[in-house]
Amino acid sequence: MVQAQSPLTGNHPDKKSDNNCSSATVSRSGNAHQQQGRNSHEHLTEIDEEVRVSGQALEEFESLVSLKIKAEQQLLSQKGGSKKKLSEVDEERRSILLLLFEKYLREKGLSKSAEILRMEKHREQLELEGFTPVKNQFSVSKELESNVDQELVTQYIGKTEKELEQLSITEFPYHRTMFTSHFEKVKNPSTNLELKVLRSNFDLENVLLSAAIKTNSAIINEKLGLINEDTLDLSNLDSLELELSKPIHTETVLRYINAATSDNLKPIDKICLMYQNMGISSGQFFTCLSSWLSSSDDKVTETKANAYRALKHWLQKYYLYYTKFDLEGVQAYTKLTCTLRTFIRSNEGKLKRISQTLGDNFDLEKFVSRTNSTFSYSQMLTAVERTIQQKMSRSSKLIECITQIETKSFVSHLSYLFGRLFLRIEPQELFGANWTKSRKKYQCPNIIDNIDFFNTYSLWFASLIVQEEQLERRVAVLEYLINLAMCCANVGNYGALYAIASAIRNGSVFRMKQTFDSISESSKKEYEKLQQIISTDMNSANYTKQLRETYEKALSDFSICCIPNLVFGSSKAITQIHVQIGSG
Amino acid sequence: MAPKETTTNSNSNGMQEFKLAVIGGGGVGKSALTVQFIQNIYIEEYDPTIEDSYRKHAKIDDKPVFLEILDTAGQEEYKALRDSYMRTADGFLMVYSVIDRKTFEEVNEFYEQILRVKDCDKAPMVLVGNKCDLESERVIRIDEAKVYSKQLGIPMIETSAKQRLNVDESFALLVREVRKSLKSSDEDQLTKKKKKPCSIL
């Protein structure tokens, strides 16, 4: 029915959050049960905070779910559906919740209990087929809330299998009463339900937390009661969403960001991580901050300053990780970026005043627009290629990323690109220097391709440096490229080496004396070496020598690629190498 | 590191040492010209194999000079490399073919790029019309080239690498240009300390 450890819906948090959650779980039970001061008091308060926040997550989750159901119900009733149909929708929801709970048990390593739960469900299902109890449509969540709570789950942790079994037997009759009503109508819960779970917007983490927390049940009940009214119509959907987007965690966030000082940003880290690990949109955090920052009061209060600091920190450290390399993340990220931009633009004056008071010249808008183009690594490389193919768009889109790409990976990608083209060259193309003559496009199309590729890349590398407006960034890119060129030399990719070297020696780059003056000593040394390799002295003797050596090495060691630059290598050597590579 | 790359103009013996680049469009005979100048032979095919074949001791205007010739044949399409070799060279032979108008028109592109890379108004250059032995196929008249070279403010000469006509002369002309520019820049440094190109016309 349910595959153990199966990955759930998209926004499953990383391992860290998992650990966090279970630690919160254990401590929570410690708080409720033992209260023997095993954990420090401070820690407990923190945990309580976390619990509170996650409770609010549950609240949102619940209301959204209910809203969804309500909407579905309305649609159904419009089609002339009966009350019976409404309860079907409920059933679905209930089963989904239960399934999620089962998954949760499995993920927490409680496969035994999960198995028992599954058996139990199955049995109930068979027993009660056809039986339709009249129940409050929101009973599930309430029951989940009150019955399947954290304490129960934590009791299972650390027990042996036998003990677990015993416990389950003693515990589950209690649950049976709860489950009885849920599965009477689910005849084929396996495939259909599984699909629905995957398609639904249910967040396992939230369900998990909903099971773990009772603290906010009053609020939830209130909210549920509100939605429970039959008067709810579809137009309320918007208003509810609006309500949810209001900063509801304000107090918590405020406490954390006020605790932070300019030297100690740990509290901000804590709250950011909390949001991140809770699977709650970081947008919520941003909403909190923005409400203070954009308040009509013109005075720069302490709260505002703190909020500014927090916003800056969050942008620098957490905003970038928002995507988490998955598609949904990227979408959410794009949305968030839009909101961020509008916010920054509409509150420019206020933000400026705050930053002036803090004596800080961080440009939020620039940061957002720069980082907006952060892709995942593979996307980045594809994008690099695409940009080149589009004849280098002039936007500084990728520059931020270039220095972030690991040199080794970049070199291997370059070797792939240059090597792929080089291998296409047919031996007959190399005769008689036909690529310099008028019929070059017909006689040596692949050589021309190679040369075009070389030129495009070289110009692109040069533009990477030139596009940077700030000196430090230019220096960083230049150093990176020097390092990259040397790495190319080490792997024998002389095509790329020449492309980078000629980019650095491009007139527009070479003119920038300050940039060259401020590169580090080690980079200077590397640059000297680079110049020696590409020196044209003695008809590029250094290069031809090195090329020959690399070629000898490449014959025995296949990890070296040896992609010569067509021009300076003697045509004989190239032909030789080419034939070798071609046959190898 | 300040990207200073002026070549050493004198070697350990006190002899002047110049790096000269032979540039121009594809198939104008750059290699033929270079090899004819250094080895006194005419080659049909491009074969840049021997490293030492591009260095030569010469005596121009009774003064010995050590020349290193950078033959850019085969690199015409490598536009990204041009900046790099233009910076290293002291003087340029801008070669075009008198039987190919396209190569003549390309000269302007080279001229402008050299000035841009050298970052000054004037650089030692000589305009060379090669293949002047092929009189029947000629499309660039010598008057036209002369007018153009005057416009650029550089000397002009017609050569034939095949018949070894004006080959040494063209290189001698360039060496003179380089010396002239060195002298004027020395004078400039004495008078002003700021580089200013001389006006010879």
UniProtKB/TrEMBL annotation, chain A:
Polar residues: compositionally biased ranges: 19-38
Family annotation (Gene3D superfamilies): Ras guanine-nucleotide exchange factors catalytic domain (1.10.840.10), Son of sevenless (SoS) protein Chain: S domain 1 (1.20.870.10)
An MF annotation (GO) of this entry: guanyl-nucleotide exchange factor activity
Xref: InterPro entries: Ras-like_GEF, Ras_GEF_dom_sf, RASGEF_cat_dom, RASGEF_cat_dom_sf
Keywords, alphabetical: Guanine-nucleotide releasing factor
UniProt entry tagged with the keyword Lipid biosynthesis: no
SMART domains, sorted: RasGEF (SM00147)
Residue numbers spanned by region Disordered: 1-45
All residue ranges annotated as the Ras-GEF domain in the record: 406-584
A Gene Ontology cellular-component term: plasma membrane
Any one GO biological process: Ras protein signal transduction
Protein name: RasGEF domain-containing protein
Lineage: Eukaryota, Discoba, Heterolobosea, Tetramitia, Eutetramitia
TrEMBL record, chain B:
GO biological process: signal transduction
Taxonomic path: Eukaryota, Discoba, Heterolobosea, Tetramitia, Eutetramitia
Protein name: Ras family small GTPase
Pfam families reported in the protein's UniProt record: Ras (PF00071)
Bilayer disposition of the protein: Lipid-anchor
PROSITE patterns for this protein: RAB (PS51419), RAS (PS51421), RHO (PS51420)
Coiled-coil ranges (or none): none
Primary location: membrane
Protein's UniProt keywords contain Phosphoprotein: no
Species of origin: Naegleria gruberi (Amoeba)
GO CC terms: plasma membrane
Subcellular location: Cell membrane
Record keywords: Cell membrane, GTP-binding, Lipoprotein, Membrane, Methylation, Nucleotide-binding, Prenylation
Family: Belongs to the small GTPase superfamily. Ras family.
Keyword GTP-binding on entry: yes
Superkingdom per UniProt: Eukaryota
MF terms (GO), sorted A to Z: GTP binding; GTPase activity
